[in-house]
Amino acid sequence: MKTALKPAAVAAMVPDGASLMIGGFMGVGTPERIIDALVARRAEGLTIIANDTAMPGRGIGKLVSAGCVARVITSHIGLNPETQAKMIAGEIEVELVPQGTLVERIRAGGVGLGGILTPTGLGTEVEEGKHVIEVQGCRYLLETPLKADFALISAYQADYAGNLCYMLTAHNFNPVMALAGAIVIAEAESIVPVGVIPPDAVKTPGVLVDHILERAM
Amino acid sequence: MKTALKPAAVAAMVPDGASLMIGGFMGVGTPERIIDALVARRAEGLTIIANDTAMPGRGIGKLVSAGCVARVITSHIGLNPETQAKMIAGEIEVELVPQGTLVERIRAGGVGLGGILTPTGLGTEVEEGKHVIEVQGCRYLLETPLKADFALISAYQADYAGNLCYMLTAHNFNPVMALAGAIVIAEAESIVPVGVIPPDAVKTPGVLVDHILERAM
Amino acid sequence: MDAKEIIARRVAIEIKAGMLVNLGIGLPSMVANFVPADRGVFFQAENGVIGLGARPPEGMQDPHLTDAGGGFVTAVPGAASIDSAMSFGLIRGGHLDMTVLGGLQVDELGHLANWKVPGKMVPGMGGAMDLVTGAAQVIVAMQHTARGEAKIVPRCTLPLTAQRRVNLIVTDLALIVPTDDGLVLRERAPGVTVDEIRAATGATLIVSHDIPEMQLA
Amino acid sequence: MDAKEIIARRVAIEIKAGMLVNLGIGLPSMVANFVPADRGVFFQAENGVIGLGARPPEGMQDPHLTDAGGGFVTAVPGAASIDSAMSFGLIRGGHLDMTVLGGLQVDELGHLANWKVPGKMVPGMGGAMDLVTGAAQVIVAMQHTARGEAKIVPRCTLPLTAQRRVNLIVTDLALIVPTDDGLVLRERAPGVTVDEIRAATGATLIVSHDIPEMQLA
Fold it and tell me: Do residue D89 and residue A159 have CB atoms under 8 angstroms apart?
């Protein structure tokens, strides 16, 4: 059985300077209440690994606006002009990674691979500084694994054992990130007794999840 | 909408000498009726990529006993003495691959990666002839992708659009192999109208599946 | 008919029964409006659904079902939810039959630049690099010129999206096929002359005697 | 109490609340019988379930729910179905807290050989190489000798399973911890003397003054 934590307790657990993987795609499938708590405790110097930085006032955008973020590893910041402005001003360091490469790097970190070879990025700026490896006559970029101190996951349902399931396009990076955070904290819309989520519907086994955020009432 | 094929039509589609990925783990989650049809048409010279060769009289074991198999890429043949005997007699070539490496090689083939780096096999016979690559101070084996002419998949339910779901330990290699076969043929216990399998329950999207075997009546 | 509608209608004709198609945000997403619902096409939104449908009825919007631009969408019967690893596995693995993307520049080699204007606009590549690298067919759907400047150029001066040659360029003036020999003009938009197309194009076009007018969906 | 029960009972004590544990087939699988159901331990069967339960009631067996040896099992409340990619992702990614495996040889470096006897037995490594490489703790559970021959030897003469040092060796005679200095004898089985252990061991054992007797679950 997992511990249910209040938002402030989660925020207190995340130290300044920590690296966080945060699920979501343009704010869909993002643990908003955990983010609100991090903003409320004025977290600083965070490294965020996420698909995008959403938009001002939503999801990771709130962390950016509040000045909590020192570094972002992401595929897209186009819908958040504040991230772009802070990047240009030198306040946030941004590493841009193709989306498919980003998710595979996170997966590699989570499943104990030392890296993956992808054709994506060959012959572009993304190739700069990377090893090119030839396999079966084709060239690939060697992309290295990503891990984080915390993975902050948004789920549709969690059960008391920490099993998670997701809904429609709110899956996105959440199931993969749940593999790659040293400490995994899930925010679910519903928290249900063990057995309510059948084994075949579990997308993230509870053994990966360390804590569940208390449900919003 | 997919075409529903009779077992003999599936067997006729698979030429001698073809490479087949076949789902299953010790015969659990294996498309038995497709295998029976291949045995009935006396298929020859097949390359089988699968977790194991089951046991005589079951699953892939039936193909081995019937002399359909020239080569196996697998993690385990321990419960099938016939595979071992044919290997020793030089009738079947066996490539042994650690189970976790096997599934990642198949996944790599299916998702367009040029390979993956794994620590599994370092310092063992598995390392022989392989590239060792150092990433972030650790050494890994470079393992190359696997693809096949056909993937023969066992599912619990298929819908008319080819969406598949699996049950309990009958998942095993099936969802990953459905990504890596040039032609994917699924044998399901039930075939249901579109909409019966909800989007969040689909484990293999129908776009990956080429044909569905007619249901056993 | 305005420029965008011409492009969307012409691209729609390329989309055949049974295809899995990814439409970029903006102009490309308009293509879906001109593909008959009974053609059996599945649209992928790379954020997590196969079987993307139209806009939802008023009041039926759900924040768990959006497209890659963050807009509310629906799902067709037979849709499947996918996470980002599966989504980009499908894209990079060659399972996506077609992607339609916007472009900033396309050149005589058929190379596309569409993700960055150094010093001006750095939104990040999102999924574009994976899409252009992995999709079976890549169609660039864009206005022929931007503020009077040619977007079809001898060599891209903006950073490339991939080293892969795109399959088709569809603009409000013309349909152009990149080949080994260069850019071949195949069709004129209704009422547009070859001279007008040449005048609006920075690259050399290969033009045969009779260039037919586009048929539009 | 027979030899196997001593081993299983002693290993069971190492399994703490909340752990995710993989038990090999044969002797290691007996360990589950001695872990109290209320300890909150999840057992993984690498063929596809987290939350492996005991044997099913007569007549309730289902072919979709088996362990890695192909035997019918049950699933506990809160169980999750996993495919082989997730299963070995958990194993190789360090999410598995403990694996208990049988052994053919263990040596003074703590290296394990348990998958092949050249010229005699080539079952394949199955999941053993991934398990020994990836699990947080590796416990070798085996009889101290085989047909009178020592299995704990100076250097393995059989092919290694991994280059990783195992954490613990539990036999019917002793509990031994491999360390930087060599094999440290920590406990004697009930009624067994240090001299008897030394006589049955091919390797040098580091023995302090008082070696306590095993406490058994």
Answer: no
